[in-house]
Amino acid sequence: MPKRLLFVGLILSALALSGCLFIRAPSTGVIEGYVTNHLSGEPVVGAVVRAWPMDGEAPRYTVSSDYYGATAVTNSEGYYRLVVPEGMYVMEARKEGHATSRIEGVKVGSTARVDIVQKPVFNPNWSVEPPRVSVEGVEEGMTISGPITLKIEARGGNDIQLIYAAFGKMPGASWLTAPREVFSGTYTTGTFTLDPAKYGVSGATTVEVVVYDQNDNRTHLIFRVFVEPAANPPSVASPGLVSGVPLARAVTLSKQVAFMGLDPQAAPPGANIYVELTWSRSNDDNPPTSVITGYRIYRRLAGEADFKLIGTVGATGASSYTYRDPSPDLKVGVEATYRVTAYKGEVESAPIEASTTPLPPWDVRLLEPADEAIGVSLTPTFRWQPIQVVGNVQHYRLWLWDANHGWGWALISPVLQNQTQCTWAELRVYPGYPTAGTPWERLQPNRTYEWYLDYAVAFDSYPTWTAASVAINDGATDAFPTVLPADMFQFTTGEQ
Which string of DSSP letters, residue by residue, matches 453-464? Predict the structure, then answer.
């Protein structure tokens, strides 16, 4: 080795040993969010969340430190936090007994918020590798001036269950993420149109695709795009309030509700929280003239300094609009304040504003007649008990039917307020719902009957409420998702 090179090497070694040689580290950013069974559902605790560059492969092993950490384990709230160099990333959440969730196209500058849905595996013997998804018709950073034509294809170790696509949000089942495009039971969508006007997006936004396979493995693709804004009007009129309906209403569901299907179904215990916003249209939302682009929804939680834009709704000229906020940021007892504005181009109206505070979840247990009781009175009184009292007003409704004849013969109570029992005289014939009581003097002796509650909902106030907690809703109303009852009791009458 030439003496000069040897001398330079010795100098560099000495500087390194003395701490005087600095190598600039790459700029870093943060990826953080929640892993939940569904958007606002119960947390997935102990899930391993990893991130790696999109142009690389999943690492065989990971080295973490206070400075760099591309792996995290979710805490008791399902929260995780990763510290990685700036760039484009793929993320995965894995946990024993759960399907795998993969997100592609996460852009890290400063802080990127990524909430992840991870469901329990449908069949533990099936593959837990997420689907491979390709999308034609949209690219990162493209400018969009109108509807675009997409084609999505998905393959994997399991058959494909659902393919979703939407502008500006993570799409999923309709109750919480409508509107969106959905394709069921196919590996390809064929060509279809995605119109930004339907979603009320303008300027910097996203096109997002979510694919589930039959084992509930999930792949989520994110493309950042720019939708050319409409021309600016002189002004935009604010949205209004719907008569008798508060702008914001928080709804807590007593059980985890699985929204992955086309219709909500009850699932294992847990909880969901969402806030439903309802408003009337702006005076400038009047097709075919003076049509606004849409409505923007902002939210500020107690303790936060500023409002954050959380969603948009496209203007259609409808008399009223509904938006549901299913964010895992929502917490029981934490006030959430919302603002809704109308906008077109870069002009935005003054906001309308309201606050709501989610109630705790609750449930109800049946007491008597007890399950499999015999010798029950022919004119029984039915009793139940809430596990805990929630809100200021509780509503219940009871069903009774002849087990031998099934649903063809049934009695039903009116909605009972703050009442934990129902007498024989309060029951009415189904399906007529007459205002008087049952025309029968008594039940039949020595016959088997079944009873349960198909409705148990608590409110902060009534009839104008801003928070509800749904313990049971077995088809009683379509105002809330389906939440099935925990108990259904059977009894046999005596002689009198």
Answer: EEEEEEESSSSS
Q: What is the pLDDT of residues 293-318, one digit of tens each?
A: 999 999 999 999 999 999 999 999 99
Which regions of 195-235 does DSSP assign to beta strands (E)?
203-213, 218-227
Would you give the DSSP letter of residue 194?
A: E
Statement: 26-58+68-120 belongs to CATH 1.10.10.10: no
* DSSP-based three-state secondary structure for 491: strand
Count how many Cα atoms sit within 13 Å of the Cα of residue 423 in the half-sphere of its side chain. 4
- Which residue intervals of the chain bear CATH 2.60.40.10? 124-228, 248-356, 364-493
The 10s digit of each residue's pLDDT in 60-90 is 444 444 445 689 999 988 999 999 999 999 9
Pairing between β-strand 448-459 and β-strand 467-473 as defined by DSSP bridges: antiparallel
**Class of the CATH-defined domain 364-493:** mainly beta
How crowded is residue 11: how many other Cβ atoms within 10 Å of its Cβ? 11
* Sequence-distant (≥ 6) Cβ neighbours of residue 198 within 8 angstroms: 167, 179, 314
Give dist(CA 71, CA 151) in Å, integer: 33
Q: In whole angstroms, what is the distance from residue 181 CA to residue 159 CA?
A: 19
pTM here is: 0.85
Instruction: Kindly report the backbone phi and psi dihedral angles of residue 42, in degrees, each rounded to the nearest multiple of 5, phi listed first.
Output: -65, 150
Phi, psi (deg, nearest 5) at residue 16: -65, -45
